[in-house]
């Protein structure tokens, strides 16, 4: 049973309670609300709210007044493991890119309506960027995002939030840009995410499928010929 008297400073109680429920179900299998209340020490009204929320997110389901876990957590775990394996696979590529061209290298994959950065290699003295492993970047104003859109298409309802004066904020203009990316085989972020930052990205393929995008980023005055940099990147993949 959970010790409710234990302080959990700096944490969110509802999240802790949800994890208590998940751990109980993982250890005991299908259980009624009464069973879960006894096992976790949580009040029934709290449990009903938690279980409704977890069920709405497909993490639990009910069967004859008993609740049990779905495979959703397993699915998330597999995706996390896959991201780790992909990071291990692409890190040497990013190291090679950074060493050869002297620019910060990234690798990102499509994650819903964003580009998820799963690997990065910094270069000393490079422009400071907000990117980091785990960051979800906008698709419409990053080079990696444009490459991913060129493979997957532009989602309905994608928000085209302005980041700089160069950001594309009209859907028609973005569609034209993405078609240009398809034709030329690379994407350019020309100070569209951050002033002074330029970035070139190319697709990383597995067979005919695009599994992600590799980019090189630096100051605008460091990337004067994007097509030449793109050709260099493609030759390294």
Give a description of the structure.
By secondary structure, this protein is α+β, with helices and mostly antiparallel strands. Helices cover 43% and strands 22% of the residues. The protein has helices at 13-28, 33-40, 44-56, 72-101, 143-152, 171-184, 226-236; strands spanning 60-63, 66-69, 104-111, 114-121, 136-138, 187-190, 197-206, 209-219. The strands form 2 sheets. The chain has a 6-stranded antiparallel sheet, with helices on both faces. The chain has a two-stranded antiparallel sheet with strand order 1-2. A hairpin with a 2-residue loop joins strand 1 and strand 2 (66-69). The longest helix has 30 residues, at 72-101. It is elongated and about 65 Å long.
Structural key phrases:
alpha+beta, 22% strand, 6-stranded antiparallel sheet, 43% helix, 7 helices, 237 residues, elongated, two-stranded antiparallel ribbon
Can you lay out the helices and strands and say which pair or pack?
Layout: H1 13-28, H2 33-40, H3 44-56, E1 60-63, E2 66-69, H4 72-101, E3 104-111, E4 114-121, E5 136-138, H5 143-152, H6 171-184, E6 187-190, E7 197-206, E8 209-219, H7 226-236
Antiparallel strand pairs: 1-2, 3-4, 3-8, 4-5, 6-7, 7-8
Q: What's the total number of strands? A: 8
Biggest β-sheet: strands ordered side by side in the sheet:
5-4-3-8-7-6
Give helix and strand order, one letter per element, not per position: HHHEEHEEEHHEEEH
Mean pLDDT: 88
- Rg from alpha-carbon coordinates: 23 Å
Biggest sheet record: 6 strands, antiparallel
Structural class given helices, strands, pairing?
alpha+beta
How helix-rich are the residues, as a percent range?
Answer: 40-55%
The geometry reads as elongated
Strand content: 15-25%
Quickly count the helices. Answer: 7
Low-confidence spans: 1-5
Cα(first) to Cα(last) distance is 53 Å
